[in-house]
Amino acid sequence: MLAGSLRAGRRAAAIQTLFATANLNSLDPALWLTNTLEALPTCPNSRVDSLLPFSDNTPR
Questions:
Q1: pTM of the predicted model over 0.90
Q2: 4: left (phi over 0), alpha (psi -120 to 50) or beta
């Protein structure tokens, strides 16, 4: 896979890992991403972990 640079490759790998984790946890990756991007601006730093796709708080 060509990503253009090492940094872009690492970024792509991180994003793909989040999508795969969401999928493995029976979440719709597109819905998870939509919900996460909507919640992120108002989420306090102390609760950012709750937005990850393996969190018990992730909406299905």
A1: no
A2: left
